């Protein structure tokens, strides 16, 4: 049983909710069904026996710890994050703020100018990690397509395999806070949904991630099992599945005297890729909920708003919010 936190002015309640843990080595059709069910109900799940080599994970973790352990003056040489590079506390361009420092890297090797001149070990660790988690993300997307009954099971994964994919790798470091600062259960990274297609997250054994599948409740996500990746649906995938899969709001809390680090791969389409639900998922009883849009169009709408703003409803058909300048 886990604790679901309501807003601070309301009584805390207990919720018996845990993220599904899906073994990717189990029977394929069953794995596909479990992934679809989790994506529909919670928008989040964990995967084990995922095939990402432990030495690839360790190399990326070691290099990340090494980077964030450097003096501030050295880390700032990789910044500011505009949009790629090092950032500290300021999140994005619209005044959002958190107890976090981060390194944002483009995850397309053809465009990875952020680390092209970086130390060799760091560059190799990033490239090896990105290649492995991209393959994992593509495999999960193909399992999703199978479970949805889409004949072309690569229809979703092709977005990530595109040579111009706009995917990202974000390394987040939440430094430990002093005991007196923990009274207010400080926010490290504020509530939001991920705009991309799919997020594959790896974190150390310090808790902090919380999800909100139901308004008013925040459910802590355990960092265990330590071998798992946490996977969540992004806004673009919710649109691609015509609202069947849920892009769920989540946040990161700084509530430990130990530092927390996470490595998030955000699988995204190419800028000119068009986001439109496959016709196999539509019917007269289930008409299209969202208009077709390009990733570049959605990305601009995302960056023009604050972190916690809802964006996808601006792209709904027959919506009162079609004007993106609202």
TrEMBL record:
Name of the protein in its database record: gibberellin 2beta-dioxygenase
InterPro entries reported for this sequence: DIOX_N (IPR026992), IPNS-like_FE2OG_OXY (IPR044861), IPNS-like_sf (IPR027443), Iron_ascorbate_oxido_reductase (IPR050231), Oxoglu/Fe-dep_dioxygenase_dom (IPR005123)
Enzyme category, top tier: oxidoreductase
Ranges for domain Fe2OG dioxygenase: 164-269
EC number(s) given by UniProt: 1.14.11.13
Family to which this protein belongs: Belongs to the iron/ascorbate-dependent oxidoreductase family. GA2OX subfamily.
GO biological process: coumarin biosynthetic process; gibberellin metabolic process; response to molecule of fungal origin
Keyword Signal: no
Molecular function in Gene Ontology: gibberellin 2-beta-dioxygenase activity; L-ascorbic acid binding; metal ion binding
């Amino acid at each position: 049983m886990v604790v679901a936190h309501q807003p601070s002015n309301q009584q805390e309640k207990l919720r018996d909710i845990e993220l599904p843990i899906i073994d990717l080595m189990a029977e394929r059709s069953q794995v596909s069904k479990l992934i679809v069910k989790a994506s529909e109900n919670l928008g989040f799940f964990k995967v084990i026996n995922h095939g990402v080599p432990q030495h690839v994970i360790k190399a990326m973790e070691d290099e990340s710890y090494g980077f964030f352990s450097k003096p501030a003056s050295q880390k700032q040489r990789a910044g500011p994050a505009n949009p790629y590079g090092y950032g500290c506390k300021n999140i994005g361009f619209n005044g959002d703020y958190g107890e976090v420092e981060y390194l944002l890297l483009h995850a397309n090797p053809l465009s990875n100018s952020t680390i092209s001149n970086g130390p060799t070990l760091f560059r190799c660790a990033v490239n090896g990690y990105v290649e492995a988690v991209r393959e994992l993300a593509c495999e999960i997307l193909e399992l999703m397509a199978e479970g949805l009954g889409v004949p072309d099971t690569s229809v979703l994964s092709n977005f990530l395999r595109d040579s111009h994919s706009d995917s990202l790798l974000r390394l987040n470091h939440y430094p430990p806070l002093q005991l007196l600062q923990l009274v207010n259960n400080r926010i490290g990274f504020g509530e939001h949904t991920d705009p991309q297609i799919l997020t594959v997250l790896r974190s150390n054994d310090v808790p902090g991630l919380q999800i909100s599948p139901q308004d008013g409740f925040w459910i802590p996500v355990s960092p265990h099992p330590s071998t798992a990746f946490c996977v969540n649906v992004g806004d673009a995938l919710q649109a691609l599945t015509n609202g069947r899969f849920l892009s769920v709001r989540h946040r990161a809390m700084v509530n430990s005297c130990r530092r927390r680090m996470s490595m998030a791969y955000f699988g995204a389409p190419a800028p000119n890729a068009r986001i439109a639900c496959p016709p196999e998922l539509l019917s007269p009883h289930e008409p299209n909920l969202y208009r077709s849009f390009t990733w570049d169009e959605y990305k601009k709408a995302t960056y023009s708003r604050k972190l916690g703003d809802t964006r996808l409803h601006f792209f709904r058909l027959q919506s009162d919010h079609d004007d993106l300048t609202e």
